[in-house]
Write a structure and sequence with these properties.
Length: 260
């Protein structure tokens, strides 16, 4: 079988994109997904995304982590999929699509910037040494003193597999503050089981967590990840974070064909 694909990245978070509107892709073949995402024997990516038809929206998003398993929402993936839909001629500058956590709307801006509306957040669990919240994917957020020297893979894995989150686990974000509304983060992603250059739902979680704990009073937060810069905006109304938007670059890398 030959598979045509496109490769996209959003601040270094990279994805294999496949147009599956004809439903040709064997969606239960998790080993195939894992192979395609393998950086030595496949294409190489943090995840694989299928674009499919939807009866009431522009398209449907089906997201797999690089371990081959279906996963929860991916913010950078949703932004890159929007750019891919534009490449396919499905949309112009506005998109409505369904992901595993519900409907999303996205806008393409100049210079390859894509803004994605995330799901509202109505629960932020603030503990003495960490914050937990779900932004379409579960996220553990904690402040650290020296983010550069931190062994993210080891520390993140310890938390992800701890009794705190059970078998399902959680993504883990380590945060340092730059100024009143700017933060640096490094993220351990479950499903990748390693540090990634960027995590969109993680950046969203950090922005909301920093606001909820009073680290910032701004409703527009700048997040620096290893792969670049993301922006998160929101409105807090009656203890609910609404109109949550994740904004940043979604960049085409290359097209290709692989035989499997």
């Amino acid at each position: 079988m030959e598979i045509h694909f496109s490769k996209y990245e959003g601040t270094g978070n990279d994805f294999v994109m496949i147009d599956n509107r004809s439903l040709f892709f064997p969606k239960e073949n998790y080993e195939l997904v894992k192979h395609l995402c393998d950086r030595r024997f496949g294409i190489g990516a943090d995840g694989l995304i299928l674009l499919e038809n939807h009866p009431n929206a522009h398209f449907k998003m089906v997201y797999y982590n690089s371990d081959g398993n279906l996963s929860s929402m991916c913010g950078n993936g949703g932004r890159c999929l929007t750019a891919f839909a534009h490449q396919l001629g499905i949309i112009q500058d506005q998109a409505a699509f369904e992901a595993v956590d519900g409907m999303h709307h996205a806008t393409l801006h100049a210079h390859g910037i894509v803004s994605l509306e995330m799901t509202p957040v109505d629960r932020v669990n603030i503990q003495p040494d960490y914050i937990f919240l779900n932004t379409g994917s579960p996220h553990h957020v904690m402040m650290v003193d020296d983010i550069d020297s931190l062994n993210v893979k080891t520390k993140g894995s310890d938390i992800r597999y701890s009794d705190l989150y059970g078998q399902a686990g959680s993504n883990v974000n380590f945060v340092s503050q730059i100024n009143d509304n700017t933060f640096r983060i490094r993220t351990y992603e479950r499903g990748v089981e390693d540090e990634t250059l960027s995590c969109g739902t993680g950046a969203t979680a950090v922005a909301i967590a920093m606001h909820a704990t009073g680290k910032t009073t701004s409703e527009q937060v700048h997040i620096w990840v290893l792969g670049g810069k993301l922006e998160v905006s929101f409105n807090k109304q009656a203890n609910v974070y609404q109109n949550v938007h994740l904004m940043g670059p979604a960049t085409f890398v290359f097209n290709g064909t692989i035989s499997c």
